[in-house]
């Protein structure tokens, strides 16, 4: 192996390890997903769209953090204007991307986008939905500034009174959204509209 090839290989390995370390710090918040089909013959073209009430602003149990975690919606920024949507948080399993985001006065987070992935995973999400499978959605958030709320202490976040113990992510970065079979937050929902003019997506 040449020195240049060796340097490239080491750089790639460092990038993979950095991504793994970032994943270990990430908070993933799950929520139910449903997909609605558009009326037949509506004449719409292009890939199918989804809309998700992705986070209701309350505490969610997170394995990496021990106590429940709450993400301050006002302090959450997007990693980019269009966020990728993955199958099970796996970057290699592309489903689509988001293109609209609404913080809804800081009380909940709503996102919408397109099933744009030309992959078997995108087809699996849609075909399983059409067969009645209740997909859920999960958002992956990288905390930048956190506050540990002690047991019995209270703080108002996202229009709700949160009582500790809890981890409050006051500032964070939303990295991507995933389609998952089962989520932790049972109070939110997602709708995905299907276009009859594009039956293969």
Overview of this protein structure:
By secondary structure, this protein is α/β, with parallel strands linked by helices. Helices cover 17% and strands 43% of the residues. It has two helices and 13 strands. The chain is globular and about 55 Å long. Mean pLDDT is 78; it is low at 38-42 and 194-201.
Low-confidence stretches: 38-42, 194-201
Number of domains: 1
The Cα radius of gyration reads: 19 Å
Name the helicity range: 10-25%
Number of DSSP strand runs: 13
Beginning-to-end CA distance, first to last residue: 43 Å
Q: Give the topology string: H per helix, E per strand.
A: HEEEEEEEEHEEEEE
Number of helices: 2
What's the structural blueprint in terms of helices and strands?
Layout: H1 3-25, E1 27-32, E2 36-37, E3 49-55, E4 69-71, E5 76-78, E6 84-87, E7 90-102, E8 109-114, H2 120-130, E9 136-149, E10 154-157, E11 160-163, E12 166-180, E13 190-194
Parallel strand pairs: 2-13, 4-12, 5-12, 6-12
Antiparallel strand pairs: 1-9, 3-8, 3-13, 6-7, 7-8, 9-12, 10-11
Task: Give a short synopsis of this structure.
The chain has helices at residues 3-25, 120-130, and strands at 27-32, 36-37, 49-55, 69-71, 76-78, 84-87, 90-102, 109-114, 136-149, 154-157, 160-163, 166-180, 190-194.
């Amino acid at each position: 192996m040449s020195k240049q090839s060796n340097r490239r290989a080491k750089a790639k390995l460092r990038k993979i390890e950095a991504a793994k370390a970032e994943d270990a710090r990430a908070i993933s918040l799950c929520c139910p997903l449903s997909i609605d089909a558009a009326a037949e013959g509506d004449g719409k073209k292009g890939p199918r769209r989804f809309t998700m009430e992705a986070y209701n602003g309350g505490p969610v149990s997170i394995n990496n953090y021990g106590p429940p975690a709450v993400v301050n919606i006002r302090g959450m920024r997007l990693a980019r204007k269009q966020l990728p949507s993955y199958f099970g948080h796996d970057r290699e399993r592309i489903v689509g991307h988001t293109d609209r985001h609404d913080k809804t006065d800081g009380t909940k987070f709503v996102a919408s986008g397109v099933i744009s992935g030309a992959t078997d995973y995108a087809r699996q999400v849609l075909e399983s939905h059409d067969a009645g499978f209740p997909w859920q959605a999960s958002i992956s958030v990288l905390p930048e500034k956190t506050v540990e709320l002690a047991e019995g202490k209270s703080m108002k976040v996202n229009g709700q009174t949160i009582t500790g113990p809890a981890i409050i992510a006051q500032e964070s970065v939303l990295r991507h959204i995933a389609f998952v079979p089962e989520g932790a937050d049972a109070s939110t929902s997602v709708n995905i509209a299907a276009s009859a003019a594009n039956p293969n997506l």
